[in-house]
Amino acid sequence: MTLNDFQNDIQSGIPVNLPPKKEYELGINHAPKRKEILSADEKVLALKNALRYFPQEHHGVLAKEFSDELETYGRIYMYRFRPDYRMYARPIDEYPGKSMQAKAIMLMIQNNLDYAVAQHPHELITYGGNGAVFQNWIQYRLTMKYLSEMEDDQTLAMYSGHPMGLFPSHKDAPRVVVTNGMMIPNYSKPDDWEKFNALGVTQYGQMTAGSFMYIGPQGIVHGTTITVLNGFRKIKKSPAGSLFVTSGLGGMSGAQPKAGTIAGCITVCAEVNPKITKIRHEQGWIHEVIEDLDELVSRVRKAQELKEIVSVAYLGNIVDVWEKFDQENVHIDLGSDQTSLHNPWAGGYYPTGISFEEANQLMAENPELFKIKVQDTLVKHAATINKHTAKGTYFFDYGNAFLLEASRAGAEVMAENGIDFRYPSYVQDIMGPMCFDYGFGPFRWVCTSGKPDDLQKTDDIACAVLEKMKQESPAEIQQQMADNIQWIKGARANKLVVGSQARILYADAEGRTKIASAFNEAIKRGEIGPVVLGRDHHDVSGTDSPYRETSNIYDGSRFTADMAIQNVIGDSFRGATWVSIHNGGGVGWGEVINGGFGMLLDGSEDASRKLKSMLHWDVNNGIARRNWARNEGAIFAIKRAMEQEPKLKVTIPELVDEELLKSLK
Questions:
Q1: How many angstroms separate the CA atoms of 83 and 99, rounded?
Q2: Largest pairwise CA distance in the chain
Q3: Known binder of ligand: residue 206?
């Protein structure tokens, strides 16, 4: 397909003539069939909702086709309308349109659906089993058409994948405002997602899928590296020759073996899906794949003896690994889990005792029995973890709702007080007090030229900025600065790029602003092409999640979502190119609200003005909230921020004498 053909296809939107029906391709990773949940009347409503995109002359053909899709897959994906061109992030100049900001968003959308990036590309799912960019292919086509027509005084409103339309605004307004799964609170149960998604009226955007900011497993590998490194620091052990055991090789969880390798330990990561295991092996994110438990034990013992840095994928169920290692007395130093337990009944977690294929069939045909088997497996999973922790293993919840769902299944994971979990969230023990409270979080950028040389130049710019900052940084954040400098220096050698020429780097508000300003100046001088800024929603300020991002908030407010909502509103009027707010990312519908942004740097004065205003708020909003919760590091960080910016004025909490309160009991 020529460039003109590609641009014409983008601009055409919904085809006037029906394209040929496409064959269902067996060679790629597909979403599992969703369970039957709609009544007969609701199935009719789902068809009416799908057909409203098309003129009546096509309804006769499409009604039967969409009905078949709904029966076969549990969703209407509109496979017929999947584009013929290759899906990947093209250089920004190849996109048609009147707005450079809109072109940047098109680039990011296509990156999220790149076969090398997306978990289920034909179902428009980027990661996490259900993290969707769109509900169907017509929503994709219509969105791209609107973006190709957009001018810099218009804003596109996105309702859970559906492009509602272009609305007049102004040049400083966001070009796109995204909402995903924003349900009335009483309709945020797992089955509500199944029902309303099947009806075609909402979707699960995960954290960065539905906001077009996913950059492949790299997006979490830095945070995972920091977590693993600091996990070993916490137990006062060197990573060399030490064993980290976990599970999940999908979208975000696929970062774990790479992170373990960068941290310098032995990593065993179990995965039940052969296709995704093969992909991660081919991408170099895991070194070896083993299918036999005896062979796995032998390989791990050899690695421990030689103090190898190696990552091994076990193709099978993680519970079998924990049980085998207990029987064989293989010592696990660090343990966790990163399966998609926010989505336990629809492919996020698989039971033991049956094959992957049998489990997928059971999930669709007998969801109640599937649920029972999953809960039985969770009980076994937790029980064998308890055996290892009794031998000295340090286990942490990776914020994937493992402990939450295990507790609901009746597993022994509660603390003696019956309120808290027996094991901490990694945010409680590691990321919260060491990173988030000080404002350090997953800053991202994408080089829109698509040139590896541009990415290398941005790496060098970021490293130079951090090294200069470290010389003047207070003692409280010297370790964070050193870890981030080490990370960016090794980024290229670790071959982290999958899809777009992107990078992630933990940085605080000062670091993000200085790095972004340096990028903008380099763009202005013509040294690099335009750059898109963003971050994971798993950050200082963007997400309210009581079992993950805000699990180290102890003033009783961790179940509130004011911070995430304020974050997105504040970003929108401070210069973000696009903003998003989601229900459910990472830990499940009704369990979290998370917000994100994207910002295009084009070398202009406008970009310089916006980045300074928005990035400052995007981080300090969260530090202010953590400070008010009486988090020691956040109190220090917000006081320092006020010294640096006189117009910032934040209420500091007065601390209470604990002995005084004890006397009142």
A1: 23
A2: 79
A3: yes
Contact 360, 273 (CB under 8 A): no
Per CATH, 237-423 and 432-622 having the same topology is answered no
Is 542 one of the annotated binding-site residues? no
- Amino acid identity of residue 238, one-letter, is S
Say if strands 176-180 and 310-315 run parallel, antiparallel, or are unpaired: unpaired
Is 128 annotated in some ligand binding site? yes
Give the amino acid at 561: A
- Quick: pLDDT tens for 283-320: 888 999 999 999 999 999 999 999 999 999 999 999 99
**CATH class of domain segment(s) 432-622:** alpha beta
Residue 553 DSSP SS3: coil
Long-range contacts of 417-423 (CB under 8 A, 24+ apart): 421/397, 422/386, 423/389, 423/395, 423/396, 423/397
CB distance 44 to 102 below 8 Å: no
Report DSSP letters for 398-413, one per residue.
Answer: -SSSHHHHHHHTT-S-
C-beta of residue 652 within 8 angstroms of C-beta of residue 627: yes
User: Rounded to an integer, what distance in angstroms lies between the CA atom of residue 475 and that of residue 394?
Assistant: 28
Place of tokens 């300020």: 541
Q: Does residue 456 have a known ligand-binding role?
A: no
Residue type at 603? G
pLDDT at position 126 is 94
Taking the C-alpha atoms of residue 271 and residue 29, their distance in angstroms, rounded to an integer, is: 14
Beta bridge partners of 314: 270, 290
Q: How far is CA 549 from CA 246, 324, 402, in A?
A: 20, 32, 15
Whole-angstrom Cα distance, residue 1 to residue 88? 14
The listed CATH number (1.10.1740.10, 3.20.20.70, 1.10.357.10, 3.40.50.10730) that belongs to domain 237-423: 3.40.50.10730
Contact 192, 199 (CB under 8 A): no
Positive/negative CA dihedral, 373, 397, 591, 275: negative
Write b or e for each residue in 287-325: b if 16 or more Cβ atoms lie within 10 A of its Cβ, otherwise e.
Answer: bebbeebeebbebbeebbeeeebbbbbbbbbbbbbbbbb
**How far is the first Cα of the chain from the last one, in angstroms, to the nearest whole number?**
75
Is there a contact between 587 and 543 (Cβ–Cβ < 8 Å)? no
Query: Using N-to-C axis directions, what is the helix angle for 452-472 and 509-524, rounded to 10°?
Result: 140
DSSP 270: E
CA distance 134 to 211: 10
Q: In whole angstroms, what is the distance from residue 623 CA to residue 190 CA?
A: 31
pTM for the structure as a whole: 0.90
User: Is 552 in contact with 427 (CB distance < 8 Å)?
Assistant: yes
What's the CA gap between 229 and 571, in Å, rounded?
Answer: 32
Q: What is the pLDDT at residue 332?
A: 98
Domain ranges, ordered by start, for the chain: 3-175+189-199, 237-423, 432-622
Q: Are 385 and 322 in contact (CB under 8 A)?
A: yes
Render the burial of 472-481: b for 16+ CB within 10 Å, e for the rest.
ebeeebeebb
Residue among 570, 564, 616, 556 at smallest CA distance from 586: 564
d(CA 643, CA 639): 6
Cβ atoms of residues 350 and 356 within 8 Å: yes
φ and ψ at residue 125, rounded to 5 degrees: -110, 125
Q: Which two tokens stand for residue 310?
A: 């190696």
129 annotated among ligand-binding-site residues:
yes
Burial 580-596 (b: 16+ CB within 10 A, else e): bbbbbbbbbbbbbbbbb
**What is the model's pLDDT at position 252?**
67
Residues of the chain with pLDDT under 50: none
Was 271 annotated as part of a binding site? Answer: yes
CA distance 97 to 35: 40
